TrEMBL record, chain B:
It is a multi-pass membrane protein. Residues 73-257 form the ABC transmembrane type-1 domain. One of its GO terms (cellular component) is plasma membrane. This is ABC transporter permease. PROSITE patterns: ABC_TM1. PANTHER family: ABC TRANSPORTER PERMEASE PROTEIN HI_0355-RELATED, ALKANE SULFONATE ABC TRANSPORTER-RELATED, MEMBRANE SUBUNIT. The chain crosses the membrane at residues 20-38, 80-100, 107-133, 139-158, 191-215, 235-256.
Length: 272, 272
């Protein structure tokens, strides 16, 4: 008995990075309470890329905010690394749908704010910031102000900013939601390249089923009112991912499966 | 993929101000035309000088009376500058207080807004009774008139930081001090400058009106005395000097804005 349990532990492949156990979140509103999340259980391994899809209002952003510690949860337990999350967790990088660049700083300075606030050594940070900007093809735009950049370029700067301090966890809330399809493809590839270079766990929210399949190791499907984890699908596609894979049968099988799940949830209705 | 055109560095304040002057040149020629029409109308119709002096007559008066105009202008300018300085010194910290303190926002802010219905010119005689005829009541009136737009715009600006931006600051572990200096204040600067520009106009009005009501020096005083002796040309001379003061004051604030808020005026030069 004792021996066996030791064996099981030794066999565990990756230690979980994030452990969400029985977490609920209720917003107290003037018109009564909103049960945004109910009884969420989710374990994410270190270095895993997990996407969350679900209809609008099912609590995806709320879950991300709980993970960052910026919003307190009502019930349950969230552990990131060895730490119990109970206050803002500064060991993360966050990217929102809006790039939230500081208009008064150049692209490079926008990335460097991360180091300034953390009082990290600036010389080394500048070096790394340049490297990151280069990896997303922005080396010629270091000194450009945000208003001189296109939407896709701005979002790339904001991703570099989120990665400057080498966070073990990257949280992204529909980061490509405001971009056109072509820019979106480019940024997905950029993101995958950055992920390969910066071993980290990614928690990625999206509305796009194909984006979720393309990027992820696992896709979490959430259903609304109150937000629950409906299904978790393993995406068994080889890495590095290539855009052409989106035409593969295996890929389309995954997107079809996810679409069917949403149809089952009543998210899509096809009759007129 | 992307190119940057020649105007990339943030434009130099001087060059920008020259561009602004270039932009106003049509307006300048309109003004010249109006002055010429005025001159002709007065000459042709033989309008008596105690009704409407010709521009040439006003110009002569400015030259004749130059030393006394300048002495009085000095008085008015010092009232404006001291009052304006006090309005900033009171207005901006008050805006910070209102932004950061729920109590102050609810206990003070509504009163500030409501106080704007009081016609401040009407309480000027009261101020004379309290503070005498010296510099103090003029400064108080300048402050009363100019501080409102400064407070309102600063409050709006300090609250203009998006929720995401503040979350981001928190996730970097920013202290409240860092959040203020690195995020909130720079975000607020364009708003604060909009308030300052409005305030310059009101400060000039405040100083002159205060001098109308009770003074023994200053350009407002010159106008009152000249009026009592039907010296219309001298009144015009004083009005022109006051306008010039107002314009110079406004332009100085605008130049300062270009210096402090350069990102607001950089042209869009990059495209993807
Ligand atoms: N601060 C808040 N106060 C009250 N209710 C909130 C708050 N934030 C979110 N909610 C509610 O919680 C629920 C989940 O919101 P959330 O923003 O997490 O959804 P979402 O899945 O991210 O939606 P979307 O896909 O549209 O971004 C919604 O019903 C929303 O109204
Ligand atoms: Mg959301």
């Amino acid at each position: 008995m004792n021996d066996m349990s030791m064996n099981v532990e030794a066999a565990a492949p990756v230690k979980p990075h994030i452990r969400i156990s029985r977490v609920s979140k209720t917003f107290k509103g003037r018109k009564g309470d909103v049960h945004a999340l109910s009884d969420i259980d989710l374990t994410i391994g270190r270095g895993e890329f997990v996407s969350v899809v679900g209809p609008s209002g099912c609590g995806k952003s709320t879950l991300l905010m709980l993970l960052s510690g910026l919003t307190p949860y009502s019930l349950g337990k969230i552990e990131v690394g060895e730490k119990l999350i109970s206050s803002p967790n500064s060991d993360v990088g966050i990217v929102f749908q809006q790039d939230v660049l500081l208009e008064w700083r150049s692209a490079l300075q926008n990335v460097l704010i991360q180091a300034e606030i953390r009082k990290a050594p600036l010389e080394a940070a500048r070096e790394r910031a340049r490297e990151l900007l280069k990896m997303v093809s922005l080396q010629d735009f270091e000194n450009a102000y945000p208003k001189e950049l296109s939407g896709g370029m701005r979002q790339r700067v904001s991703i570099c900013r989120a990665l400057l301090h080498k966070p073990p966890l990257l949280l992204m809330d529909e980061p490509f939601g405001a971009l056109d399809a072509m820019t979106r493809d480019q940024l997905q590839l950029d993101l995958l390249r950055l992920c390969a270079d910066n071993a980290m766990t990614v928690f990625f929210i999206t509305h796009s089923i194909s984006e979720a399949v393309f990027l992820s190791d696992r896709v979490v499907v959430m259903s609304p009112r109150p937000g629950r984890v409906e299904r978790i699908i393993d995406i068994d596609l080889p890495r590095p991912r290539r855009l052409a894979m989106r035409e593969d049968l295996k890929f389309t099988a995954y997107t079809r499966e996810l679409t069917e799940i949403f149809k089952g949830l009543g998210v899509f209705r096809e009759e007129v | 993929m992307a190119t940057i055109t020649e105007a990339a560095p943030p434009a130099h304040p001087l060059r920008l101000s020259l561009r602004v002057l270039g932009n106003i040149s049509p307006a300048f020629w309109t003004l010249v035309l109006l002055v010429v029409l005025w001159e002709l109308a007065v000459q042709i119709n033989q309008v008596p000088v105690y009704i409407l002096p010709a521009p040439s007559r006003v110009a002569a008066e400015i030259i004749d009376y130059w030393p006394r105009l300048m002495i009085n202008a000095g008085v008015t300018v010092s009232e404006i500058l001291i009052g304006f300085g006090c309005a900033i010194a009171v207005g901006v910290p008050l805006a910070v207080l209102v932004t950061y303190s729920r109590v102050a926002e609810r206990a003070i802010y509504p009163l500030i807004v409501a106080s704007q219905t009081i016609p401040k010119v009407a309480i000027a005689p009261l101020l004379m009774a309290w503070f005498g005829y010296g510099l103090t009541p003029k400064i108080v009136i300048v402050v009363l008139l100019s501080f409102f737009p400064i407070v309102i715009n600063s409050v709006v600006g300090l609250k203009a930081s998006s929720a995401e931006m503040l979350y981001l600051a928190q996730s970097m572990g920013a202290t409240p001090w860092q959040t203020f200096w690195k995020f909130r204040l720079p975000q607020a600067l364009p708003y604060i400058f909009a308030g300052l520009k409005l305030a310059t106009v009101l400060a000039v009005i405040g100083a002159v009106v205060a001098e109308f009501i009770g003074a023994d020096r200053g350009l407002g005083y010159v106008i009152v005395v000249a009026g009592s002796s039907f010296n219309i040309a001298r009144q015009f001379a004083a009005i022109i000097v006051i306008s010039a003061i107002g314009m110079v004051f406004f332009v100085i604030i605008e130049l300062l804005e270009r210096l402090v808020v350069p990102w607001k005026n950089t042209a869009v030069v990059a495209s993807e």
